[in-house]
Amino acid sequence: MAGTFDRHRRLRSSAAMRNLVRENHVRVEDLIYPLFVVEGTNIKEEIPSMPGVYHFSLDRLKEEMEEIAALGIQSVLMFGVPEHKDYCGSEAYNDEAITQRAIRQIKADHPEMIVIADTCLCQYTDHGHCGVLQEGQVDNDETLKLLAAAAVSQAKAGADIIAPSNMMDGFVAAIRQGLDEAGFAHIPIMSYAVKYASSFYGPFREAAHSTPQSGDRKTYQMDPANAREGLREAASDVAEGADFLMVKPGLAFMDMVLRLRENFNLPLVVYNVSAEYSMVKAAAANGWIDEERIVMETLVGFKRAGADLIITYHAKDVAKWLRGE
Ligand SMILES: [Zn+2]
Q1: How many CA atoms lie within 13 A of 17 on its CB side?
Q2: At which positions is Zn(2+) bound (predicted)?
């Protein structure tokens, strides 16, 4: 019999042997933790559909940031939720708005922390779309000017990376030009290059209060049925000067992570989105799954597909698990 088949089990014979030949690892440095900041004081309010994820006012954000830093997480993704919303999303590019104040505060308290600023208009517009509307349609090129202004304002506040999520055509080029002209040529752009019009964002929209008041985002976010289109989107962003590429959401779009990995050499980010998190939390609360093992298997799956960095609401738990806590 010997020699007629392969003995794959030799390399799985013990925990030490498996550790020796393991191909992919999740490190705490790979994790980016999203934060939701609101106006007001003494607010730490759990988002009902996302157990363990909170809205923080700036005063309560301090304790959260202490915990994040102590866990060894070195990157956060900032979402500001303003009280005042208007037609053109003015708070997105107001230097004194909640997002900008939060960035300044974090950089003052934790200068070593990488603060990534989500750059979009949907949290700031009263209609909830990611751009300005003209006769009910999102006006792409008018929106670009506002996005560039928002990015410059965030960079001024101290953001280390600008992460535009709006899916307008030309957003990387417009933001790059705006940053360069304002003296921020050194600030990288993490483009949400391949972002789908997905149902997996449901809980997030509750968190960011950003559900569109009319219509949907299908004229700018991608059709979940399309893969080749994602390569065109990514190629445009690379040509326009993106420094990182992102795929969002993660689990149902793992093939896109692999396709981008095989086609581009930029650092690749995957967003493990809100519904992916909420479904795990709900199943774990019912005792149906082993939360830690499910989450670690998911994250190593992202790495195996080719992701370098993972934006995830599980980041704090993962940091603890990686330390054996
Ligand atoms: Zn948006």
Answers
A1: 7
A2: 120, 122, 130
- The fraction of the chain above a pLDDT of 90, given in percent, is 93
Question: How many residues are recorded in the chain?
Answer: 325
Range of the domain at 280: 22-323
In the reported structure, the alpha carbon of residue 269 is separated from the centroid of ligand 1 by a whole-number distance in angstroms of 18
4 inside domain: no
Pick from 135, 197, 136: which is nearest to 166 by CA?
197
Q: Is 51 contained in some domain?
A: yes
How far apart are the C-alpha atoms of 324 and 292, rounded to whole Å? 11
Number of domains in the chain: 1
Q: How far away, in angstroms, is 256 Cα from ligand 1 center?
A: 21
Asked, for residue 13, whether it belongs to a domain, the answer is: no
Residue 208 CA to ligand 1 center (angstroms) comes to 10
For position 253, what pLDDT does the model report?
Answer: 98
Is 195 among the residues known to form the active site? Answer: yes
CATH code, 121: 3.20.20.70
Report pLDDT digits (tens) over 65-76: 999 999 999 999
Helix (H, G, I), strand (E, B), or coil: what is residue 95?
Answer: coil
How far, in Å, are 22, 44, 92, 191, 281 from residue 162 at the CA level? 34, 26, 13, 8, 30
